[in-house]
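Hey L., structure's done. Input below.
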Amino acid sequence: MVAIAASWGWEVSGPQRIADLTEEQAATVLVASLRIRGVLLAILAPLGACLSWALAQGNQPLLAAAGSLAVASQAMSPTWWCSGRGTPDELLRNDAIPRAAAAIASAAFIWSGINPIIYPVLGCAVVAWAYTRFYRRHTSVAVEDSTFRLATELRANASSVGISLIATSYTTALLPLLQIAAPSAAPGFAVAQRLLSYANLATISLSNAFMGAKSHQRAKNIVVMLTWSAASSVVFALIAPVLSELILGTALPSPWSALLLAATYLGVAINTCISRLWLIPHGQVKSVVAATAIGSALGLPSALILAMRFGADGGLAGTLVAETACCVALIIMTVRGRGARRG
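Output:
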């Protein structure tokens, strides 16, 4: 949650803001982003670390606090910049590869007997080095923006961060509530949700690649993404049981679980496509916030009620209700938005 709050919606609104700008203009926007995210991270990261320390189980409070700081560092990720400028190779070199290298090196150190705290510490150090090199290179051509006001920028991105916070709060709260309302359903639901989160990474990556597209390319990108989503959901339904056993080491709750997961995956993909590739580029961020809130408000009680009646699959059905409600709301808002623009 700290990383989401500190990033302040730049992963949602950022790509469109810089897609059509010159190098100097885009660099100026990047500087503004760094100021906002840096201030928020400086405030929120210590608070998150202290909370992790206080809640740590056993005798590893320092490890918990360091892990919290490592996760919070993702707020400074250049993902949105690389999406907006159409340079996924830079994201690979300056984020994915350094993180993977740090993880591999940490695993080797831990295996050799070094304290596990090396994992978050080394991760933070490597990411800080990679991000510093990246941002120095891309901000060198920025011009001083005398109009920058921190409060103004915070207000401008409030709706964007709302999207991420609402969606994350729903996902984070659901499993603990299930453990209380339907404890027998929680383990199977947790397995299915974890598998779904892995599958959704492909959807997020594809939408990130398309978010910085020019206006005349949006319709084509939407068709490509919807086609990909439909085809991959069918494949996911067929291979989900095998993936669950291979990756997570346990079977899905029932034969119906794969179908529910595939349908939810498709719903997530459609919602991501409509919101990130159409509504947000057209300035309808508040519509996406409203649709996300509607889906969460309907999905949470549905998942709890259905899980108490039908077990883990009931919880998955409730998640599908959330995505379906969000999808219907997004479609309605898209139609209304197009009518308003024509009018």
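Residues 23-55 form the longest helix (33 residues). Residues 58 and 111 are 21 Å apart (CA to CA).

-- N.
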